[in-house]
User: Fold these one by one.
Assistant:
Number 1:
Amino acid sequence: MSTVTHRTQVAIIGAGPSGLLLGQLLARSGIDNVVLEQRSPDYVLGRIRAGVLEQTAVDLLAEAGVSRRMHAEGLPHDGVVLCFDGQLHRIDLHALTGKRVMVYGQTEVTRDLMDARGASGQTTVYEAADVAIHDWSLDGAPRVTWTAGGQSHELHADFIAGCDGFHGVCRASVPQDAITLNEKVYPFGWLGLLSDTPPVHEELIYVHHERGFALCSQRSRTRSRYYVQCSLQDKVEDWSDEAFWAELKRRLPASVAADLVTGPSLEKSIAPLRSFVAEPLRFGRLFLAGDAGHIVPPTGAKGLNLAASDVGYLWQGLVEHYRGASMAGLDAYSQRALARIWKAERFSWWMTSLMHRFPETGVTGPFGERMQQAELAYLFESKAAQTVLAENYVGLPM
Ligand code: FAS
Ligand code: PHB
């Protein structure tokens, strides 16, 4: 069977937020790119994930020309609430940092990027099977091969952007002796539920409770997203909607539980929690961005935001290369991205360690629980401690 050959400047593997944002930024800078995605558009949109955007991500989406609906439908939040010992403690993000966060679901970000890409005329291949990358060394000639509809294809490119997530092919293709993998797996998961019910509170509530962590988040004034910490042995089919709502109410203060509007789940899923960083993020003409290069526990709302800042650094480096024939930005990509990634990893690990109940064999035990209680008590007494949390939650500078 003959192979159909294609050519572009940047081959992007993955049509999640990282791949689509990079593709859009490059297209608007006049840099031709092709996005290859193994799944269908509907499958990608069906994954319910992040909900909170930092200003850096909002700014990049504006740069990509896809911020109109976000500003029309998104919810700017000036504060966030932590609940401990049945008491609500509001952290005034805007008063402490001058910044706020934007509550706008990843599904909507992805939809906006998909729509923009469709209008841009750039090539996107969905349901690309057997994607493989080749010859990405600095003096090589990068190629991507795949099959679709029984036809084999080959794409020649100057660079490959691995935006294919934690389980993607790009990082897995890097020889083991060329990459360092740093990982910590947490002994629990998050059971998430999406419902067309009004949010229980105007801002997000992160709950520390002896039965386990809970989070009250939202997608709009009529759509809510809730999470409860669960065992890694749990299966989503073990949890009826009624069981979920009952457990969430047990972890909320009575006054908040009384306001909780329950309803049928639109989506319910269990996400494992891990901290993960691959180093470096650049291999010749291959670059890793987003979940392909790192994972954070979602407690700090950093996953999608880190993907955006990676893409921002990579876009700047590629523009510098194509406009000035300088590799300086690309040479600095990995170090610049990793500097921000590790600070977000620290914050996400800290928030996870502070807010979750660890099994007896884990971090907590009696002494660990007292450390959590002392840290939370100090947090609620100290403006300095609240400022540290606020600075990290709204996002450190790029
Ligand atoms: P993605 O994983 O989103 O996208 C990668 C894309 O590459 C996918 O569409 C995949 O199909 C495709 N792909 C993979 N292998 C391929 C191949 N071989 N060929 C072609 N395409 C391939 N972050 C938060 O801030 N808050 C949350 O609550 C939160 N919840 C999450 C829950 C889950 C279950 C997961 C997995 C992540 C969650 N995240 C959360 C993090 C999430 O938002 C990521 O940070 C974000 O999706 C990163 O986007 P991408 O880097 O584009 O990776
Ligand atoms: C969400 O709305 O899905 C969400 C919000 C904040 C987090 C994690 C998830 O820290």
Number 2:
Amino acid sequence: MKFENLLIETVEGIAVVTVNRPQALNALNQQTLVELQGAFADLSNNEAVQVIILTGSGEKAFVAGADIAAMQPLSALDARQFAKLGHEVMGAIEKSPKPVIAAVNGFALGGGCELALACDIRLASEKARFGQPEVNLGVIPGFGGTQRLARLVGKGVALELLLTGDLIDAAEAYRIGLVNKVVPQAELLEAAKKMAARILSKGPCAVKLAKEAVRNGLEMDLDKANQYEADLFGLCFASSDQKEGMQAFLEKRTPRFQGN
Ligand code: HXC
């Protein structure tokens, strides 16, 4: 698939996907969403890719939201369709069997914050700014922000951000648990790649199942979720990774995982 608004580079199992519309602060229009959908379908099925990093081009923005110019004239039905497309994209990221790390290099607003929320781990540069400023435009988030933000940082903090539309800096995002780590701008991509490489060195089957356990388990009650965890734990024992990982520990050597 050829991309107009994305740059994709894969090196040693780590794919870096860069949203590349710097003239509009990487705002998500229909085309960019469709490209993200295609890119995540490809990368999720590509055996050469084990971890995905998502970032924005330029120094200023990760993604400054859905494209306001494109949304302004939409009919109600078209707006619903646009939101549904966004949900499909966020769902594809969340459900990707590969871990996805957001490297938030600047503004992550509205749909941009929602894009970061759909990722598994968020690293931010000191220049990152987060917010759900949709109320300033007379709308609400439509790519899952009302749901994922509340699930991640809790109802009260999420509602404060959603109702005021206030932007917060990286330190505050870290304080409320919206981001995992804050690093200097110049080190952001390297930090994301280092984390990706650490994940890459682990048992691939276990990494995949751990993501699945958290994602699906959080939507269940605790008894069902623990049962589900036990099932997935059992499933690990059908993999050569489990035999190798435990054997390597007993032999005091580094495991050589096959990912099966
Ligand atoms: C379209 C955008 C944009 C956006 C910025 N631009 N954000 N275009 N959609 N979301 C464009 C500007 O129009 C401008 O284009 C160029 O990018 C540079 O932006 P400036 O505003 O000049 O930069 P600056 O003064 O530094 O301000 C940065 C900013 C501001 C604070 C990030 O751009 C801003 O507030 N953007 C909108 C943020 C927002 O409200 N996001 C939520 C959108 S709603 P020109 O051509 O003038 O140079 C949303 C809903 C999601 O995301 C759900 C949908 C279903």
